[in-house]
C-alpha cells in the first residue's frame, strides 16, 4: 500500500472550528486528532470518518488524503522530542501544558538551537502581558507585534522559517486568516509552533485544531523535575506513520512506549505499596522503564545558569542507538542517577 496521510494543512484551512464541527456529525475530536498526528493509521480509519471530514472541508476524500509525499523532520537534538514526536518541517506543532511545567523553557531552547541552523525564528508576541516570556522572546531572530507585521516578515524570508505564536491568535481566527494569506502567496517554507500561555489547552480536546505534531507535557514528570517532561505516550507526530522514518525508529518507539506505559502503571503501585509489591516477573520491566525515563531527561543550554549543568545536544542516530541499548539491557550496569541528565549514553 502507498504511504498515505491526512491533509492536515487543508483541514486546518477549511474547518476552523473542527472540534465542534466534528462533534456535530458524530465524529469524536480525539479520533480526528489521532488521525492528524498519526496515532491512528489513516489506512485503518473508518470510511464514514473520512467522508465526514471531507464533507466538513467541502472537498473530496481524495483531496483529504495525501499519497506518497514524504514528510521531513527537523532534528532538534532534544532526545525526547526527536524520538517520540518529531517536529515536521512545514507542519504545525502544538505545545500543551499548564503554566510552570516548562513549555516556555522548551521554546527558548528551540530558538537557541535554531540560531546555529539555517532556520529563521519569528515570534509573534501575545496580545496580553506574560512576564514569563522575559528573556525568551529575545532569542528569536525577529519579534513581531501584529498579524500584518508578521505576514510582512514571513513573506520576506528567503529561507526556512520557524514561526511561533500564542493560542490566543488561533482562538480569534487571526492565525487562520494569516495562513490563508500565506497560501494565497504560495509561501511554503514555514514551520509553525503554537503555545498556550494561558494553560487552558490541557482541558480542551483539540486546542489548536488539526496538528502534524503534538507535544504534551506531563505533570508527573515536571513535578519530579524530569525535564523536558514531554509525555512519552500522549505526544505524537504524523511523521511516525512511517512516511519518512526508517523502520528501526518506528519499532524502537513502539517498544519504548510499551515499556514506559507498563512502567508508569507499576510506578503507581510502588508509590503506594513499595517496590516489594511488584511481581518478580515484572521487576525487570520496572527497572528498564526507570532507566529509560531517566535517559530522556536532558540538560538544556538556556538553563545552564540555573542548573549548573552544561547543555547537551544528542543526534537522532545516537538517541536510537542509546534507546536500543537500554531496551536490550545493555545499560543495566548504570544506575538511574548516572543516566539522568547525561546527554548521550557512552558504554
TrEMBL record:
<keyword id="KW-0547">Nucleotide-binding</keyword>
<dbReference type="GO" id="GO:0005524">
    <property type="term" value="F:ATP binding"/>
</dbReference>
<comment type="similarity">
    <text>Belongs to the ATPase alpha/beta chains family.</text>
</comment>
<dbReference type="InterPro" id="IPR050053">
    <property type="entry name" value="ATPase_alpha/beta_chains"/>
</dbReference>
<dbReference type="InterPro" id="IPR024034">
    <property type="entry name" value="ATPase_F1/V1_b/a_C"/>
</dbReference>
<keyword id="KW-0406">Ion transport</keyword>
<dbReference type="InterPro" id="IPR020003">
    <property type="entry name" value="ATPase_a/bsu_AS"/>
</dbReference>
<keyword id="KW-1278">Translocase</keyword>
<keyword id="KW-0813">Transport</keyword>
<dbReference type="GO" id="GO:0046933">
    <property type="term" value="F:proton-transporting ATP synthase activity, rotational mechanism"/>
</dbReference>
<keyword id="KW-0067">ATP-binding</keyword>
<keyword id="KW-0066">ATP synthesis</keyword>
<dbReference type="InterPro" id="IPR027417">
    <property type="entry name" value="P-loop_NTPase"/>
</dbReference>
<keyword id="KW-0139">CF(1)</keyword>
<protein>
    <submittedName>
        <fullName>F-type H+-transporting ATPase subunit beta</fullName>
    </submittedName>
</protein>
<keyword id="KW-0472">Membrane</keyword>
<dbReference type="GO" id="GO:0045259">
    <property type="term" value="C:proton-transporting ATP synthase complex"/>
</dbReference>
Amino acid at each position: 500500500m502507498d504511504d498515505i496521510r491526512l491533509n492536515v494543512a487543508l483541514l486546518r484551512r477549511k474547518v476552523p472550528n473542527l472540534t465542534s464541527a466534528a462533534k456535530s456529525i458524530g465524529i469524536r475530536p480525539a479520533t480526528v486528532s489521532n488521525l492528524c498526528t498519526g496515532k491512528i493509521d489513516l489506512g485503518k480509519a473508518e470510511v464514514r470518518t473520512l467522508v465526514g471530514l471531507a464533507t466538513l472541508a467541502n472537498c473530496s476524500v481524495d483531496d483529504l488524503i495525501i499519497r506518497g509525499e514524504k514528510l521531513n523532520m527537523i532534528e532538534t537534538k532534544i532526545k525526547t522530542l526527536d524520538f517520540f514526536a518529531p517536529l515536521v518541517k512545514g507542519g504545525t506543532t502544538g505545545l500543551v501544558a499548564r503554566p510552570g511545567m516548562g513549555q516556555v523553557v522548551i521554546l527558548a531552547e528551540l530558538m537557541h538551537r535554531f540560531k546555529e541552523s539555517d532556520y529563521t525564528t519569528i515570534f509573534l508576541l501575545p496580545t496580553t502581558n506574560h512576564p514569563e516570556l522575559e528573556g525568551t522572546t529575545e532569542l528569536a531572530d525577529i519579534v513581531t507585534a501584529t498579524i500584518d507585521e508578521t505576514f510582512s516578515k514571513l513573506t520576506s524570508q528567503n529561507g526556512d522559517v520557524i514561526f511561533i505564536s500564542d493560542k490566543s491568535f488561533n482562538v480569534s481566527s487571526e492565525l487562520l486568516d494569516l495562513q490563508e494569506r500565506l497560501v494565497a502567496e504560495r509561501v511554503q517554507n514555514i514551520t509553525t509552533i503554537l503555545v498556550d500561555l494561558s494553560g487552558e489547552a490541557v482541558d480542551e480536546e483539540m486546542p489548536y485544531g488539526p496538528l502534524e505534531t503534538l507535544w504534551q507535557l506531563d505533570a508527573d514528570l515536571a513535578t519530579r523535575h524530569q525535564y523536558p517532561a514531554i509525555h512519552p505516550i500522549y505526544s505524537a507526530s504524523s511523521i511516525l506513520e512511517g512516511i519518512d522514518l526508517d523502520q528501526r525508529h518506528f519499532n524502537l518507539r513502539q517498544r519504548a512506549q510499551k515499556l514506559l506505559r507498563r512502567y508508569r502503571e507499576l510506578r503507581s503501585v510502588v508509590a503506594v505499596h513499595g517496590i516489594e509489591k511488584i511481581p518478580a516477573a515484572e521487576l525487570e520491566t520496572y527497572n528498564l522503564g526507570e532507566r529509560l525515563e531517566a535517559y530522556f531527561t536532558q540538560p538544556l543550554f538556556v538553563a545552564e545558569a540555573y542548573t549548573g549543568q552544561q547543555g547537551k545536544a544528542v543526534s537522532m542516530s545516537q538517541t536510537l542507538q542509546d534507546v536500543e541499548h537500554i531496551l536490550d539491557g545493555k545499560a543495566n550496569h548504570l544506575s538511574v542517577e548516572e543516566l539522568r541528565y547525561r546527554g548521550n549514553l557512552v558504554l
